[in-house]
Amino acid sequence: MSIPNGVLRQAAALPIKDGLVCLVTSRNGKRWVAPKGCMEPGKTAGEIALQEAWEEAGLVGVLEPDPVGTYFYEKDGFTCHVIVFVMQVTDEAATWPEQSFRERRWLSVAKAADRVADPGLRAIIEGAAVKVG
């Protein structure tokens, strides 16, 4: 799929462990989201997804090889395109880089889908249910 110029490209991890999905709060603490961040030169989408899972949620794991989906959202006047990978979590740190301003929460697929405001991310979480079970 071709992404138009001016669209911010991002990558996200959908962390899964023991049948649960991990969400984190946004920087302002008002929304629940999957760990995600902007693409950086020289890094793949998968590398960014793993990096953001560590920085935002303190999680380490293995990504499924193919993305589970993509979605668009608006932020600060920009359109963002997010590619999402399912991440099978292998380790959960007690401390992590962004823990002072993010909350980490493990939820069932249904509760995770209910928590996220973005319809694109919600659909991906619901669609990833088969990966969780």
Supply database-style keywords:
single chain; 133 residues; Nucleoside Triphosphate Pyrophosphohydrolase; eight-stranded mixed β-sheet
Structure description:
This protein has 133 residues and is an alpha+beta fold. It has a single domain (8-132), classed as Nucleoside Triphosphate Pyrophosphohydrolase (Alpha-Beta Complex). It is 25% helix and 39% strand. It has four helices and eight strands, in the order E-E-E-E-H-E-E-E-E-H-H-H. It has helices at residues 45-57, 109-115, 119-127, 129-132; strands at 8-17, 20-25, 32-33, 36-38, 59-63, 69-75, 78-92, 104-107. Strands 1, 2, 3, 4, 5, 6, 7 and 8 form an eight-stranded mixed beta sheet that branches. A hairpin with a 2-residue loop joins strand 1 (8-17) and strand 2. Helix 2 runs antiparallel to helix 3. It is globular, with a radius of gyration of 14 Å. The relative contact order is 0.27. The mean pLDDT is 92.
Secondary structure blueprint with pairings:
Layout lengths: L7 E10 L2 E6 L6 E2 L2 E3 L6 H13 L1 E5 L5 E7 L2 E15 L11 E4 L1 H7 L3 H9 L1 H4 L1
The radius of gyration over CA amounts to 14 Å
Q: For the residues shown, what is the average pLDDT?
A: 92
- Number of distinct helices: 4
Largest beta-sheet characterization: 8 strands, mixed
- Which structural class do you get from the secondary structure elements? alpha+beta
Domain count: the total is 1
Give start-end ranges of low-pLDDT stretches: none
Instruction: Supply the CATH architecture.
Output: Alpha-Beta Complex
The CATH class name reads: Alpha Beta
Shape: globular
SSE run:
EEEEHEEEEHHH
Number of strands: 8
The CATH topology label is Nucleoside Triphosphate Pyrophosphohydrolase
- End-to-end distance, in Å? 29 Å
